[in-house]
Fold these 2 entries.
Entry 1:
Amino acid sequence: MTRIFSGIKPTGHLTLGNYLGAVRRWVEVDQHRADALFCVVDLHALTVDHDPGRVRRLSRQAATLLLAAGLDPGRCTVFVQSHVDEHARLSYLMECTATDGEMRRMIQYKEKAAREQQRGGSVRLSLLTYPALMAADILAYQADEVPVGDDQTQHVELARDLAVRFNQRYGHAFTVPRAVRPQVAARVMDLQDPASKMGKSHAATAGIVYLLDEPDVIRRKVMRAVTDSGSEVAYEPDTRPGVANLLDILAACTGSSPEELAEGYDSYGALKKDTAEAVVEVLRPLRERHGELCADPGQVDRVLREGAERARALARPTVDAAYSAIGLLPAL
Ligand code: AQP
């Protein structure tokens, strides 16, 4: 059976981008067709300036939202990365397999390092080695597929390269994974800055729809979305990214194509109104279920405990074998 691994970072409240670009597919497709592991990758949240209490709260919230969105622990494994030591153990072997140049070429590293420096902060070493940990996340489970949005495909490519290199040097240890991207809404853009993706860790929040935003807040954010100077609704992502983003979001929420939708509108106002309502409706059941799960915290605890146990049992033999293959003396 195909094995899938994917993760979500507790660096902020989950957004519509996370949902349309990743989580919805995990729920509707991936957990039904494969042996799927979904992980709150909390170690990755420590690669930039962080508040310990906030990371803990966001980790819990992310896990609860994944269940609220419809991940079913009877069908898939939901767990927290730091609960399974094998991620950090294997990450070191990946650092010993990757080169400094490969890490520095990563677009996300360059962007985030620049952001940290602009803020006057220093760049953590773990930001540079982040892709080694991500490769470990994937390879520890012998994952065949990694469903990700556009922003993460470069990291999955590197994980592939590291798997191939390790296998060639030390004997077959890892499945070589591949990135799988959703057809629609692979990249949801910020409503106020359609040149940037809607990212949960961004400081300016007016263009970001959070999964737990109240319906009226969602409506306000969508109605205030930046569009373009023209007035005719057309799907032209390169020249009119603001309108294209709204059409992509509406298409993802309604299962239509953005080009077809564009033909049905003659004003930005009507497009925004329908987009806002579509987003509110898509998120409504998720918000309700989140409320129910918060009232029963024992249920989330149980899912995370059992998820970590299963993940550990899957990862340990692979990581032990990799330790031995690379030349380390097995513990007695
Ligand atoms: N805007 C987006 N559109 C489509 N997919 C997205 N994803 C994230 N944003 C969008 C996908 O959601 C999954 C989990 O994302 P993540 O936690 O790795 O990244 P993030 O939400 O983008 O978090 P940050 O902290 O805001 O990100 P950065 O690191 O960019 O600062 C992934 O499959 C991702 O592709």
Entry 2:
Amino acid sequence: MNPLPLATRRSFLGGLTAGAATLGWPARGTAGEPERPLGVALCGLGNYSRGQLAPALRLTRACALRGVITGNRDKGLAWAREFGFPERNVYAYATMARLVDNPDIDIVYVVTPNALHPEHVIAAAWAGKHVICEKPMANTAADCNAMLAACRAARVRLSIGYRLHFEPHHRELRRLAREGDFGPLRRLSGGLAFTINRRVWRVEKALAGGGPLMDIGIYCVQAACLAADADGAAHATFAPVAVRAREHPKRRADLFRDVEEGITWAMEFANGASGEFSTSYNGGEDRFRAEGERGWIEFAPAFSYGGIQIRTSAGAPRIGAAPESQQALQMDDFARCVREGRESPVPGEMGRRDLVILEAIYRSAAAGGARAEVKV
Ligand code: NAD
């Protein structure tokens, strides 16, 4: 997708204000990075924004925190003081359309509960802003289609917050898939679980779309597709041909009223790779393993923000120092994609693919474990 020339962009946004003409395309610097890092506005100031993204945006070089979109104006004003951006860059969800007038903001990063991703991504796109959307991209693949269509129409780039694609141990998995040190990675397994004890949006189907599968099982789906994709290209639409799944019996049906408490599923790929995975909100697990004919690689912990460890049948591979922040790498990459006019390695299409897979997993579980085909 090529960025829209400014003239066309003006006419696309013709019904909007004249400020649309200055959509914040950055000035290019002469020594690598642009003179001005791209401006990011975080949409949703909950735990992930506070604990991970805002600190990461102090480390990024190609982008910086320049605004927020929040339901709580006082909180937004406090962020403006803390991070040194002007009060005019504090928006409410309902006033996102006004971002079109704000050349400080190039990228909106949507970090709200899953069900709200579509409206916030689409609002950002219609304001002419590039978008990063947190995982899962939406509650349904149909919603993903609408988000992709809006971003295409607005000629803005869309990427998903798949931070692990930029993490060195996960890059090593991709290298092994591509270079085949252990042969094609055919037997895959993994699990991710933590415990939820109270009623939060993550256990409400309307907001979360489902239970732990939507929230954290998606990491196993991501790693499985990465490992099974034999050319190591991490294609955005590479997917299993079918899945089978069984929901775990509920131990706390009062808490997990309309979402699964846990689920186990198998993935079957056309090239012969297969995997068994599980995820739960009632336990503690964080692992991934991929095995070929000549060796294996094991991750534990596999998916955390830091401290990822790997072992292989050939000993401990030499991996560079862990990054200070996976999220800083991820956001800098997206900012460079925007600046250089290239597609993100974790585009909206990949987010949609994962929703298609998750929907098939739920379909199989609802059918008592019957084989469900995946059609991306
Ligand atoms: P959170 O509950 O801590 O924050 C959610 C924010 O959305 C809050 O500021 C809340 O006020 C706001 N919000 C707006 N409308 C809301 C509504 N109707 N109901 C509830 N909250 C509403 O959640 P979080 O952990 O920051 O997760 C936010 C998103 O980020 C989710 O999509 C989640 O999957 C994703 N996430 C990704 C990672 C990762 O590693 N990539 C990690 C954590 C969360």
